[in-house]
Amino acid sequence: MGQIIAVTNLKGGIGKTTTVVNLSAGLALKGARVLLVDVDAQGNLAMALGVKPRRTLYEVLVDGARITDCLTPARPNLDLLAADESLLAAQPTIARRPDWPRVLDQALRPARNSYDFIFIDCGGSLTVLNLNALYAANDVVIPTTIEPFSIKGLEMQVLQIARVKGGSGVLRAIVPTMYDSRTRQSVELIEQLRTRYGSLVTAPIRVNVRLSESSAQGQSIYEYDPRSRGAIDYALLVEHLSNLWGFRPSESAVPAPVFPPREASTPVQPAALAVAPPPQTDPIIAGAGSFLSATCPNCGHALQRATVAGYRVAYCNHCRYRRQELLSGVRR
Ligand SMILES: Nc1ncnc2c1ncn2[C@@H]1O[C@H](COP(=O)(O)OP(=O)(O)O)[C@@H](O)[C@H]1O
Ligand SMILES: [Mg+2]
Q1: Is 2 in the pocket of ligand 1 (CB under 6 A)?
Q2: Mean pLDDT of successive 10-residue segments in the chain (332 residues)?
Q3: What are the residues whose beta carbons fall under 8 Å from the beta carbon of 235, sequence distance 6 or more?
Q4: How many structural domains comprise the chain?
Q5: What is the distance in A from the centroid of ligand 2 to the CA of 42?
Q6: Are residues 229 and 323 in the same domain?
Q7: For the whole model, what pTM was predicted?
Q8: Do residues 74 and 220 lie in contact, with contact meaning Cβ atoms separated by under 8 Å?
Q9: 8 CB under 6 A from ligand 1?
């Protein structure tokens, strides 16, 4: 049975949808079968994936349509149960039902065996459907920006999860987004987060305009600019979480991604991924040098290695040093 993961934060505009798109697209490229469920009436997931759904979650929840009849295929291994503004009208109807907290859970049940992961992209407020998402989920991922107010909001979100789930054990990861290491405040706040939540805090997703451009183009960051910082950061998150979830690609998986050059503007098909030439050298890529070293140059601990989304990545679990190699070079 697939994992159901709510991606939630009571604040809007902090990178939930961006995280859902790029985490799920990365898992789908690794061969996982992934379903995305949008419970936000803004319907951003369909736009961010560049698809035009004919049917939506409203029909499943209110009209009793079969979930399998309302899915929109978005990429190989990646389906979407989309939302639109009709979902606003669904909420009062759902709230009147005696079983209101479990409506989404019940609706997702017939699909659970067909997917390895079902991600629910929540809206940024306390709605009936966001609560439904928490009831349905067995895992929760919280993206958060690194600002004083958002960290306060994070505490409220963790309390809400504890209330709904009877504890915060379902909290799998806190993902710092739009991180800018040049500001002292960001560095200090992320340290505070790590002190408070320990290893739940993942490596941060750095601020990167290519991420907002990719959403506007209806592409994942791996399609839009696989050499960007955003692609590298999300690819690392994919690797980290797929390890936590114990996901192993099946033999029938989509081939490991080898991305075409930056000019590519249309969604990349698996066959193209397998044969496309790797990108040419980039001016900001330096020599490979110490990539081959087995120990962290900062703290001397053993480096971990992973191959994700066209990169070889070496990273240190102790001090969070990381280094990634693309074809003939390395960039931080
Ligand atoms: N790491 C990032 N760097 C730069 N822009 C980002 C980043 N993550 C998200 N964005 C942009 O910020 C805006 C809000 O992100 P979004 O994922 O829609 O947030 P939410 O779903 O929480 O409302 C979008 O325009 C998105 O493209
Ligand atoms: Mg969103």
Answers
A1: no
A2: 94 96 97 97 97 97 96 97 95 95 96 97 93 97 94 92 93 97 93 96 97 97 95 96 89 43 37 31 28 75 68 70 56 41
A3: 26, 222, 308, 309, 310, 311, 313
A4: 2
A5: 8
A6: no
A7: 0.81
A8: no
A9: no
